[in-house]
Specification:
The chain has 274 residues and is α+β, with helices and mostly antiparallel strands. The strands form 3 sheets. The protein has an 8-stranded antiparallel beta sheet. Strands 10-9-12 form a 3-stranded antiparallel beta sheet, with no helix packed on it. It has a two-stranded antiparallel ribbon with strand order 6-7. The chain has one domain: Jelly Rolls, CATH 2.60.120. Helix content is 19%, strand content 21%.
Length: 274
């Protein structure tokens, strides 16, 4: 359920921390599924899962991770967050609302090693349509709401997600951001107003993508593992041109398939008469 406090804090800060969103068994199943995937380098495929990087210092992504087995399929409409996501994407009763409103335009597991980080990005000043924050006439209509799930404990030195609370409404770019972008392997460390979010395995961070966010640099050994699902309106399109496999669509529940492929393609086969 979406509470009044959820609404207030999401509007105020741009994010919610969902403690214990997944059980220990769910976390173990997700990690087990990741362990079963052979180690890949960027550009390689394992079935419909694609190894990918945004840059060179932000870790390795396994894109289309809902193709990696039933534990990841369960995240598509997980009860810990799906009602909140649907509420903040919004659009019900408007021209935008179609087939349950939601679409996942990107979903991936991220592996971040010692020394890696991702720089700060987004913010209300940017005005991007894809990830806009909007509240109008008593309802939310956000362009993209993310769920970031910790599969390992993330504490000091682990390269946690960093956010600037309230920056989803900012009219100006943070003055420290440019120098951080120009620094090699930029992170969000040292930017005034940014907060690092510590999480236990199984916690989830729900945030509007308009929020200025990035990560601290990981200084500890071992690997930070998170999974990110990005939700938007049903008329969206895959960010990197991926498509769900026929096998995935065949085995999904109708509710999950509607989120993965909200718009069924019309049969264009000509109706020829003999």
């Amino acid at each position: 359920m979406v509470t009044d406090l959820d609404i207030y804090l999401f509007d105020l800060r741009g994010f919610l921390k969902l403690e214990g969103a997944l059980s220990a068994n769910e976390v173990a199943a997700l990690n087990g599924s990741l362990d079963a995937i052979p180690t890949m380098t960027p550009g390689e495929w394992y079935g419909y899962v694609h190894a990918h990087q945004y840059g060179t210092t932000d870790g390795l992504n396994y894109q289309q991770i809902y193709e990696a087995g039933t534990p990841f399929e369960a995240l598509i409409d997980h009860p810990s967050w799906i009602d909140k996501v649907r509420h903040f994407i919004g659009g019900e009763g408007t021209f935008d609302y179609n087939h349950g409103a939601l679409f996942i335009d990107e979903n991936f597991a991220n592996f971040r090693q010692q020394g890696e980080a991702i720089g700060i990005h987004s913010g209300g000043f940017a005005g991007a349509k894809r990830n806009q924050y909007r509240y109008l006439n008593g309802r939310f209509m956000c362009g993209q709401v993310n769920i970031l799930i910790a599969l390992t404990d993330i504490g000091p030195g682990d390269g946690g997600t960093m956010v600037i609370p309230g920056s989803h409404k900012s009219n100006f770019e943070h003055p420290d951001v440019l120098k951080h972008r120009m620094a090699a392997g930029a992170s969000v460390d040292g930017i005034e107003g940014a907060e690092e979010v510590y999480m236990n395995a199984g916690d989830a961070l729900l945030f509007v993508d308009t929020l200025s966010h990035g990560s601290a640099r990981r200084t500890n050994e071992a690997t930070r593992r998170v999974v990110i699902y990005r939700y938007g309106p049903s008329y969206g399109i895959f960010r990197f041109g991926y498509e769900p496999s026929p096998a995935l669509l065949e085995r999904l529940t109708p509710e999950r398939r509607q989120i993965v492929q909200p718009m069924e393609l019309l049969d264009r086969t000509p109706n020829l008469k003999d």
